[in-house]
Write a structure and sequence with these properties.
Number of strands: 8
Distance between the termini: 38 Å
Helix content: 25-40%
Mean pLDDT: 92
Strand content: 25-35%
Number of helices: 5
Strand order of the largest sheet: 1-2-3-4
Oligomer: single chain
Shape: globular
Low-confidence stretches: none
């Protein structure tokens, strides 16, 4: 999509995170060399692309914005075979990748930030906002219980009496 690429994609991801971590988001868009107006415009443009009848849909939209994926692997979830595709997002999260779980016909089932395959899982001795992704917690704490909050960009993990709220796969709040 003309004028929308990996930088703008990262700025777009920040919008939902701002609901929980406005200070971290302000620092992030400044680090990316963006203004508040640019970060909000990136979000609005993404929403417009998602709703546009003339924009590519599903996987084709992500490929138009992010280019071809760097990795591709098959994942079996029950009886369903999905394809996991990842893209690096150098800039705000150099140790993370954007992962899409794609089904038949390029239908996007889920998209979120994941740890790079060669990236070390953080110690997680002290969980803090933006310190880890869903996969980090599940790898470190096998007893953690996942809960779907029914909001596409969010995920919840219950761990030792705490609820960890993730937005786009990145930890935001411990409650």
């Amino acid at each position: 999509m003309r004028g929308f690429a990996r930088r703008e994609f990262q700025l777009m991801l920040l919008r939902r995170m701002a609901d929980f971590q406005p200070e971290l988001v302000n620092r992030a868009f400044a680090k990316a060399g963006a203004t508040r107006a640019e970060y909000l415009a990136a979000h609005n443009r993404w929403v417009s692309l998602l709703r546009s009848a003339s924009a590519p849909q599903g996987l084709a939209l992500y490929e138009a914005v992010l280019g071809p994926p760097d990795t591709e692997r098959e994942v079996a979830i029950g009886d369903v075979a999905l394809t996991a595709l990842t893209w690096p997002l150098a800039g705000l999260w150099p140790d993370l990748r954007w992962e899409l779980m794609v089904g038949f016909g390029g239908a996007v089932m889920n998209g979120w930030l994941v740890r790079a395959p060669d990236g070390p899982i953080p110690a997680l001795d002290r969980l803090e906002p933006w310190s880890c992704v869903v996969g980090d917690v599940l790898a470190r704490y096998p007893s953690a219980q996942q809960a779907d909050p029914a909001v596409p960009s969010r995920w919840i993990i219950n761990l030792n009496g705490q609820s960890l709220l993730f937005v786009h796969g990145l930890l935001q709040v411990l409650a």
